[in-house]
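Internal ticket #5521
Category: modeling
Description: The requester needs a full-assembly model to guide mutagenesis choices. All entity lines are attached below as received. Residue total reported by intake: 602.
Assigned to: D.W.
Attached entities:
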Amino acid sequence: MNQIVVLNAGGQYCHLIARRIRDLGVHAVVADIATPASELRQVKGIIISGGPASVTEPSSPSVDTAIYKLDVPVLGICYGHQLLARDLGGLDSVKAGVTKEYGHATLTAANDCALFTKIPSRQDSDLKFTVWMSHGDTVQTQPPGFKVGGSTDDCAIAVIHHPDRKLFGLQFHPEVVHTEYGTEIYRNFVFDQCRCEKDWDPRARVEHVIADIRRVAGDRKVFFLISGGVDSTVAFTLCARALGAERVLGLYVDTGFMREGDAEAMQYLRNTFGERAVRLADRSADFFGRLQGVTHPEDKRAIIGETFVAVQEDEFARLRLREDEWLLGQGTIYPDTIESGGARHAAKIKTHHNRVERIQALLEAGRVIEPLVEFYKDEVRVLGEELGLPHDVVWRHPFPGPGLAVRCVAAEAHAAVEPAALSLPNGVAGWIVPVRTVGVQGDERSYSRLLVLAGLADVEAAGALARRVTNEHRTINRVGALVYERAGAAFGRVAIHPASLTRERVALLRAADALVTRIVRARGLYDAIWQMPVAMLPLGAAAGRETIVLRPVNSRDGMTADFARLPAPVVSELARALGELDGVDAVLYDVTNKPPATIELE
Ligand code: XMP
């Protein structure tokens, strides 16, 4: 069999590794980390993924060490790199938590490591390129027989390789787009070391998915909650193609947390499959009612997920649909499951609305169909194009199921911002905002403070400072540059005020979001940015006053992201326009990458 197996240590990027390899035209699958070596004898190559655990702890996930003797090339990545060092070099080879290193780093690589052939070398003999790091533990000594193949400023043994045995370890993540030459590294491993041949065409998957839907559904019909977004539209279309429009029923639920124009986006499905197949329901009163006074992000997510299930149950009762005849269809994509802690050993970053407890129970009872669960966002778009969906539907910015609810931050208590006790460049002011937002650091969820900076020369300088501060201070996971403060509401004097999700707050956020989208489209930037959440903090000179946060990001699949650089005149235009909205005291431009901050603020 011509394939690569990725052993899953629970890392956020595990399936991304398989994806990168499938992009090269080679069939790659993900398997449990403890898969016995006897089952891996026939594969062409083994990759051990990253993961949130520490190999220095006895209960940490481990491989069957017989895999190292199979004569099959092995590549360990991050946690996998450390595991390789520990398994072949002993416990002392890895040290826990010596340096924390997140984000970009420069790798100085050895020319004789087989993974780096075909990477164009610069004039000098050293090969240097940018890599993406996210780790706390570090390899201290290479195992016997291994050579060190590369290092960064903070990590002396960032690469190990055995010249004769085709065993490799990389501390960095070649699968994330921020690593320069990541594709070349995988190409060298897959084709030169593992001797794979091309056997995988992603565009040929539509028929396969349709066949799968028919197999899983059998005689049953499918009920879908749809949002107008690309995932649920593609999933619905696939089910309608597989089973016929008369065997699918879509319900668009107005949760109260939709963007302006969202309802129109699902019009495409109505036009294509008919009004009988695609219905509308305004359930915003239920959602707002259940969320009254709720402030913690995970509580919000749980309540929203449960309310979706309640709406679905009401609809089943109202339309007299029999549970044994209908499946629940969901447009769940792979990151929804891994971020919810669904893969073994993966840490829970957040509970996606389609992975709450009651949905899990339905999944276990075999009552759910999720045609896109193996795919990432960019693959879903490929499927959407293959299905002939309109460009606007396929290329709309992603929008989370819980909608504006995860962009409207809540707070329990009154607390003033404080000057940041950090060493900052001359002329730069910094404040710690007493509100927490969600992040992901070293494969784990974080829920930490926001730092606001003012007086920076430009967005590049802000981003560089954000990177340094979040690397050095674990209590800060997000940094915003102050781009507007209302006269009379100087930022140093604003405070967080108690607030939860109300119709008034969400209406202001919706207006801000619509304004930003209009300007970004008018300036020709919409297609150049992967996603541009507009979020809101209950931060201002008095209760009821708000701060708007611009969060433009570039990403390939949402798993990692760089904050997007907006031209300075556009930032000024956005700041000015938002400042004119009634209720807005300040505007921030989020200049944090993911990691350490997630895309949504929650
Ligand atoms: P984070 O905030 O985790 O977001 O960096 C990564 C991507 O996922 C989207 N997102 C969601 N999508 N249901 C969804 O369908 C959800 O519950 C959800 N939460 C986050 C987010 O918008 C970004 O594109």
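Resolution: model delivered.
Comment from assignee: The mean pLDDT is 92.
Ticket closed.
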